[in-house]
Write a structure and sequence with these properties.
6 strands; about 190 residues; rod-shaped; 6-stranded mixed sheet; alpha+beta; single chain
Length: about 190
């Protein structure tokens, strides 16, 4: 009888230990499943962020190509359109009229051809044709013999100020002002 009672107690104890172990194993298994699920979600989010980052880089590259095309178009304007652009930019500025224009070495001959009758004073070509187009009294703009470190456009150099109308600066300004609008046109709601 003692043996039967001992066996019954041992069996009950074994079943209790097995039940506890089973619950603990199930709890650990649930925790591990949750960790794995969280890890999968984290990896999926990480991959999604990487994909969005790659897409954003490609979109920015496309926008940069748009602005590069604008730059190319400016560099390849015919003489008449180029004249209108330059005179329009200077006409919008409040200048004294005795400033010098600094241009790239590549554009120097073009400015002489378009904006000067060839008269030089103290080593600087007088931009008399430009002054006539600007229709500003007393305007005596000159072409600086020193080239500007730009690829296109010009820099107005005065006694008290400089105005940067280089194509690089103009395009950078346009990009800052209109990049979001261009992105909306190119990519819609993306």
């Amino acid at each position: 009888m003692i043996l039967k009672q001992g066996e019954a107690k041992a069996k009950a104890l074994r079943e209790e230990i097995l039940a506890i172990a089973s619950r603990e194993a199930e709890s650990e298994l649930q925790k591990e499943r949750q960790r794995q699920s969280d890890l999968v979600k984290m990896k999926m989010t990480e991959k999604d962020q990487q994909a969005k980052q790659r897409t954003l880089i490609k979109k920015k590259a496309l926008i940069d190509r748009v602005f590069n095309k604008i730059s190319d178009s400016l560099m390849n304007l015919d003489d008449e359109d180029y004249k209108k652009l330059i005179v329009g930019l200077i006409g919008a500025d409040k200048i004294v009229g005795d400033e010098a224009l600094m241009v790239s070495k590549a554009d120097y001959a073009r400015y002489i051809k378009l904006f000067s009758s060839g008269k030089a004073v103290e080593g600087q070509y007088v931009l008399d044709k430009m002054s006539a187009l600007l229709k500003k009294d007393g305007c005596q703009l000159r072409l600086s013999p020193n080239p500007a470190p730009i690829t296109g456009g010009f820099i107005i150099s005065g006694k008290h100020f400089d105005i940067d109308h280089s194509f690089e600066t103009l395009i950078k300004s346009l990009k800052e002002e209109h990049e979001a609008e261009i992105a909306q046109m190119l990519f819609g709601g993306e």
